[in-house]
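Researcher: We're teaching a course module on how sequence relates to structure. For the next exercise, students receive a sequence and then see the predicted structure as tokens, so they can try to spot secondary structure elements on their own. Here is the exercise chain.
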Amino acid sequence: MKAGRAVSHVVLIAGAVVMLLPFVWMLSTSVKPADQLFTVPPTWLPRPIQWDNYVKAMGAGSFGRYAMNSLMLVTPRPASKSISPSTASERLLIMAWKP
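Model: And here is the predicted structure for the students to work with:
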């Protein structure tokens, strides 16, 4: 492997790590107990891990209702984007071959 290629791989890997750090921090924070959220220095691995935070979050609001609303808003758009171009292209094809 050439030196330039090795340098570009190192830069890309470093960039990927930098981009993933907020996601890892978010996951780490989501399972921390409340007393570990604002500790200095910050802890990356919470002790103990509290999976109960997810149960509390799902029960705090009507999560099922929110998920259903999102699905009702998101699902029709891809379906309409799939159907609309095919019908439009059929009409354009018929119009183009008319003498």
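Model: If you want an answer key for the exercise: The CA atoms of residues 67 and 73 lie 10 Å apart. The two ends are 61 Å apart (CA to CA).
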